């Protein structure tokens, strides 16, 4: 796998690498305030008692690995406290964290997130469209897991690509219940014996939604419980940098092979829909300075209101003067007005919204090298 490092003062980040070792020790070795997002799928502490069998008496391949076993709730809480503290230290001031769990552990993680100063933004219910049935018939079918999304601080200016999520959801605001399938078929990774490579492998669709929603291309995403590398695979596809931490050699082997075969999407494909507020601010006066509109030029509204452009980027209409928004609101007797869509100029005999000129400037800004 290609490896890179990113300088952060005297230290470097092991970008696009899977680091072997205890996640707390590894995170504590990384520089403070260096990671944009942490996605954590920690051991669930399932507390399984004995084997589980299907009605045909075949054994269920349940999570009974040593890494998911803790001697007590107190031991699990200590583990949670330590890894969350390490994760919080390396998050940038405007960074965020996602944790995922079941009813066995998610409430304990939620309490500890708040104890450490994280600010919970949402809890998301991942509704599994194809859950494993409850074979014993003594409880409800466990058909969901819970994710918690939290910023490092209450005042953090975390990333949230609202419009991109809305586009993913056919133009409808994304809800906090996500219906996605568990890993099956070709997505379910197998080991050399043909068995599941990891018992709790997460689907790429889940990580795709998380990263599109709360990161941008080039952001650093760290997964302290990397497993077979779903976080790394999706990060690579979406043009994000990743850091994986995994102590189990067998999982690292599978993850390295998997990620090596992943192709990064091209630059155009990585671009997502952004909100208007996220776009660069362009003052109306800049259009006048650049000669895209001339002082004295007439602007009209859809209802025939008229104003003239002044040299300082303001408008004048009869006895009203001010910004494009102020004059539009005054003429309409409205509390506010979006002057960019309200005012039009004439080109080639057609009325064109002045917002077209603003978009031209924004396109120029986007094409400039960083």
**What's the total number of strands?**
16
Low-confidence stretches: 48-55, 58-63
The H/E string reads: EEEHEHEHEEHEHEHEHHHEEEEHHEEH
Q: In order across it, which strands form the biggest sheet?
A: 3-10-9-4-5-7-6-8
Question: Can you characterise this structure?
Answer:
With 370 residues, the protein is α/β, with parallel strands linked by helices. The chain is built from twelve helices and 16 strands. Strands 3-10-9-4-5-7-6-8 form an eight-stranded mixed β-sheet, with helices on both faces. Strand 11 (298-300) and strand 12 form a beta hairpin. Helix 2 crosses helix 3 (106-115) and helix 5 packs across helix 6. The chain is elongated, with a radius of gyration of 26 Å. 31% of the residues are buried.
Summary tags:
12 helices, 29% helix, elongated, 370 residues
In short:
With 370 residues, the protein is α/β, with parallel strands linked by helices. It is 29% helix and 22% strand. It has helices at 23-28, 73-90, 106-115, 162-168, 204-214, 230-237, 249-260, 267-270, 284-289, 324-332, 339-342, 355-367; strands spanning 4-8, 11-15, 17-19, 35-40, 91-101, 119-128, 144-151, 177-180, 220-223, 241-245, 298-300, 306-309, 315-317, 320-322, 344-347, 350-353.
């Amino acid at each position: 796998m290609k490896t890179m490092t990113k300088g952060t003062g005297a230290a470097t980040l092991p970008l696009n690498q899977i680091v072997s070792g205890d996640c707390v020790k590894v995170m504590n070795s990384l520089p403070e305030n260096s990671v944009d997002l942490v996605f954590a799928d920690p051991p669930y502490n399932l507390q399984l008692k004995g084997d589980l069998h299907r009605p045909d008496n075949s054994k269920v391949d349940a999570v009974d690995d040593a890494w998911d076993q803790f001697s007590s709730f107190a031991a699990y809480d200590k583990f949670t406290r330590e890894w969350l503290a390490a994760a919080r230290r390396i998050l940038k001031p405007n960074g965020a964290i996602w944790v995922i769990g079941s009813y066995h552990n998610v409430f304990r993680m939620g309490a500890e997130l708040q104890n450490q100063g994280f600010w919970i933004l949402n809890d998301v219910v991942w509704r599994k469209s194809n859950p494993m049935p409850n074979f014993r018939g003594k409880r409800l079918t466990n058909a969901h897991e819970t994710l918690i999304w939290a910023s490092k601080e209450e005042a953090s200016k975390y990333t949230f690509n609202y419009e991109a999520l809305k586009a993913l959801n056919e133009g409808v605001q994304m809800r906090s219940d996500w219906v996605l399938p568990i890993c099956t078929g070709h997505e379910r990774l197998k080991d050399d014996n043909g068995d599941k490579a990891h018992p709790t492998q997460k689907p790429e669709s889940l990580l795709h939604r998380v990263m599109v929603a709360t990161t941008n291309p080039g952001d650093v995403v760290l997964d302290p419980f990397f497993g077979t590398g779903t976080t790394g695979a999706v990060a690579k596809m979406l043009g994000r940098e990743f850091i994986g931490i995994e102590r189990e050699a067998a999982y690292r082997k599978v993850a390295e092979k998997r990620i090596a075969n992943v192709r990064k999407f091209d630059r155009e494909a990585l671009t997502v829909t952004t909100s208007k507020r996220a776009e660069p601010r362009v003052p109306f006066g800049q259009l006048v300075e650049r000669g895209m509109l001339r002082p004295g030029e007439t602007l009209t509204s859809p209802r025939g209101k008229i104003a003239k452009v002044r040299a300082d980027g303001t408008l004048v209409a009869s006895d009203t003067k001010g910004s494009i928004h102020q004059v539009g609101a005054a003429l309409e007797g409205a509390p506010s007005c979006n002057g960019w869509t309200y005012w039009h100029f004439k080109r080639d005999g057609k009325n064109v919204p002045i917002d077209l000129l603003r978009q031209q400037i924004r396109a120029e800004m986007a094409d400039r090298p960083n």
